[in-house]
Specification:
Helix content: 55-70%
CATH architecture: Alpha-Beta Complex
CATH class: Alpha Beta
Number of helices: 7
CATH topology: Sufe protein. Chain: A
Structural class: mainly alpha
Order of helices and strands: HHEEEHEHHHH
Number of domains: 1
Strand content: 5-15%
Distance between the termini: 29 Å
Radius of gyration: 14 Å
Largest sheet: 2 strands, antiparallel
Shape: globular
Length: 140
């Protein structure tokens, strides 16, 4: 996946005329994600609280002290939501991840208004898992 910024996400969402186009854009973002291999699709890496199957792994901390996450799902729209999450958190250090409120981005993109309750709950579960992995790396 190309290194997308949160500002680029905002700009693209604002430029798209309706929610069907935004959903299509999210699905396209999800298609750009590299899939996890079968060995990474374990119960330990599964995000609990998602209706769809979602697996999330943290790569080893970089020399610069930043974290990068990789994730995959069996649902196209959820993969797009994963892409949003990775855009928000990849390349940040644990302290910045823990201090980031994903609700601000989620709300500004309008996802809080245009996703089902189940999708919103799944997104929250994914954010909690990312923050949990960041916290673990921060205290390790």
């Amino acid at each position: 996946m190309n290194k997308l910024t949160v500002e680029e996400l905002y700009d693209t969402f604002e430029a798209l005329d309706d929610w069907m186009e935004r959903y299509k854009y999210l699905i396209d973002l999800g298609r750009e994600l590299a899939p996890l291999n079968e060995l990474e699709r374990t119960e330990e890496n599964r995000v609990k609280g998602c209706i769809s199957q979602v697996w999330l792994v943290a790569d080893p901390i970089t020399e610069a002290g930043t974290l990068n996450f990789r994730a995959d799902s069996d649902a196209h729209l959820v993969k797009g939501l994963i892409a949003v999450a990775l855009t928000l958190f990849n390349g940040k250090n644990a302290a910045d991840i823990l201090a980031t409120d994903p609700g601000d981005v989620y709300g500004r993109l309008g996802l809080d208004q245009h996703l089902s309750v189940n999708r919103r709950n799944g997104f929250v579960s994914m954010m909690q898992r990312i923050k949990g992995l960041a916290h673990h790396s921060h205290t390790a």
